[in-house]
Amino acid sequence: MHDFFEVLNYVNKIIYEPNRLPLERVQEEPQNANYGAGTFKIFSKTVRFRVGHVTPTKLGQFVVFWEKNDNNKNQPYRYDEATDLLVITTFKNETAFGQFIFPKEVLLQQNVLSSDATKGKMAMRVYPSWDTPTSKQAIATQKWQAPYFIDMCDASDSLNEELVKRYSL
Length: 169
Fold this sequence. Notes:
Blueprint: H1 4-16, E1 23-28, E2 38-42, E3 45-51, E4 53-54, E5 61-64, E6 67-68, E7 74-75, E8 85-92, E9 96-103, H2 104-109, E10 123-126, H3 136-145, E11 149-151, H4 157-168
Parallel strand pairs: 3-8
Antiparallel strand pairs: 1-2, 2-3, 4-5, 5-10, 6-7, 8-9, 9-11
């Protein structure tokens, strides 16, 4: 399931609607369609949305995020033009479901977004809490990503509070 509207509809019914997080200005991003790509707004926050891909040989989920420059070449998103949040929805079979909700400031610190001082990236691998990486790089990546991951299988009130906090700050 990687169609933007299909995944967003699922997430909306399971997460956003029950927590009164209204979606506005929903748009698909065709250049990254294989990754359920789109943008929308929740409250005052602009959101770039992606769906992680499970790959057959590596742990974690792969995701891309790039745009075309004036010369029609792929380039990383720039910090000064980036949405407030990058949300990467992850699935593990039919049993686990979660979201990474990265503020753009964190993406700049991690050299994901480009700026005058950083090159930026056009893709990365994310490691949900249910993954146990063994390589040093993957362990370090999961460590910086962990505070931004929410396991959506937890249907408690604390999950609701956390979602509202992250989307409406």
